[in-house]
Amino acid sequence: MAQIVLIALAGLTYLLVLGPIVIVLVTAFSPTEFFVFPPPGLSLRWFVTFFETESLRSALLRSLELAVASSLVATVFGTMAALFVARRRGWFATLLQSLFLAPLIFPAIVFGLALLLFFKLIGGMPEFAGLVIAHSILGMPFVIRSVSASVLAVDPVLEEASQSLRAGPWRTFSLIIFPLIWPGILAGGMFAFILSFGELNTALFLTGPGVTTLPIEIFSYLQFQGGQLVIAAASAVQVGLIAALVIVMERIVGLRRIVRS
Known about the structure:
Blueprint: H1 2-27, H2 45-52, H3 54-85, H4 91-100, H5 108-121, H6 127-152, H7 156-164, H8 169-198, H9 203-206, H10 214-225, H11 228-252, H12 255-260
Helix pairs in contact: 2-11, 3-6, 3-8, 3-10, 6-8, 7-8, 8-11, 10-11
């Protein structure tokens, strides 16, 4: 009986998580002018409309540029932070870990407002640079957790042996540590990319005219212009790009190693 209940709860969870996504993906191929589910047929007309709409196409490219830039920054700094705090103990290391993971705790809207006020306090910040900073901070906790787990799985004896052979810190990292933790680094970078690609709440405070991401363009398009089906196509493009990224990562690393990291 308990097993049946668990299976039912698991099925309900999958339905609630995947059901809306499936509806959006199917609706994106609808040939009709208005939302109908299930659609009476299949068509690519709304994907064509999406790529022909300058504002949506530009927002997609900008979101990709932003996601790549912020995930690279988050991966580099998150890896450095993880290497520093992963094996340290004491109140100072605990404080640093809490600070690094703070973006996971604070609401994204509060974080976006705080960054907006901070940028105004220092005299302003270009919109794209401000978005890169914001998304990098939001993505760093995922990198830190992923890389920290990989670092803790490395036997410290290997580092001690390398140092006993007079290898410096950089040589030890490049020849010993990095080959063992790179799946965790890639997994953290992937999560940072996905988070940046779909981030809306923080970006609402930091974008300006001519500098909008795809989530913000979708939000404003629905709010002021309508066009649910072209937005369904835009959402399908987002899901497709993320799915392609996950497939590539699975080929390179393997999903089991990513989840374990």
